[in-house]
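Lecture notes, unit on protein representations.

Consider one protein chain, 328 amino acids long.
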Amino acid sequence: MGAQESTPRPARPVLACGEVRTCLLPTRDAVDEGAAEALLRLRADERVRVSRRPNRCAVSPDVLTGVDCRLPTANGAKVRAIGTVAARAVLTEGRVLQSTAYFAAPADGPDSRRPWGYYLVRPGLLVPVGRLPAPAVAEGFLAGHRPGELDVGSVAESLLARISRAPLLDYDTPLNTSSTVLRWTARPTPADSEPSLRFTVGEEGLRTVALRLPEGTPPAAVAGLCEDLALHDWLLTTVGDKLDGVRLGTDDQAAVRKVLGPLVDHLLHLWMPRARLERVLAGLWDALEEAPGFTRQWDALAQRIRDQLALRALLARREALDARLTTR
């Protein structure tokens, strides 16, 4: 009985936080399923999860990083937490690589630090010393950490770099693209309130997502939602930037095709929101379809590409016809 009292169980999590990095896999062609598994085999004791429908997606096992540090807070309160941050990688269609680092935290924990074994049996959980001011931590996490505070972005970035250094990658990408960062928090919905999602693009392109979800929603499922959002936001950003950076009215058809061709070959078929979300979370995409209208934006970009390719083909046929008439 005394042993049970000395190691009380933490309460149910009241906060989950994470960060997603998204980039183009640094290689010329999309990798096949076997190569995807080799890239994401981060642990020998767990297999890479692979699904083929509705598109190919590989998810690594979680790797854990032990931390004992202060959590970011909006009001400057010093909150110490101990435990492990979970991180995983996702590869979509052998083409787009994502790394995610995340944790959950309960409302309170023991008043003093416990041995590491207490925390290691709770993977992905950061247990506070004392009470957790969840609203202040959530707001502080989205705003960014200060020196000496937890930085889960560095965990995600380290995992991304680890995979990107794999020898089977040739670093000859078909497109020059930038990576994006999406930082998220999730808290339980207030009584008599519906789940909600607030998406913001802030300074220097940082994406933030504040979620209110049913109590007990698994943090791994929330991470999956944010990975899906980050993937499709990256697609919109990348395709939009490429179209803005090319002079579509120029007569240099080869230059235009050099940009549009890779977009068609490597990215246009990847648009498939909500493909693998848990049903309780899939409805949150509706907010993104209303404002800013993710799919409407994508459809408009895709149509621009198709129209330009059709126009280029028409001009090429006309030039070929004119050349034949000139030689007669």
